[in-house]
Predict the 3D structure of the following.
Amino acid sequence: MKRCRKIRHPEIVMDAPPARFQSETLDALRRRLPDYLAARGVEPRRMGARLVGRCPNPSHEDSNPSFAVFGANHEICGCYPCDFRGDVFALSQWLGHASTFPEAVADVAAVLGISWEGGRP
Ligand SMILES: [Zn+2]
């Protein structure tokens, strides 16, 4: 039987309920921050080593893009006027898509279309 080889991100396997995630799984999700932003309607553009775009905070009328994605793997983001800085899980909570860390992990996985091994956590 032939197997489909078109798996987009085979390095990420959601291996356990959020409270018991492996740190490698969380790190793999952190590196998907630019994809998470794109899925949330923010498409940051490259500016030097950073990616810069409009702030996704609806209460911040960001006409001069001040939201930045940085870090060695583009795994950290922040908005100076909003005084926010954090990883993809902090971003999920900051934007109100999750109120706890496990909820944020579930939100990020769902937005990125990553399914859980063995079904929903
Ligand atoms: Zn902002």
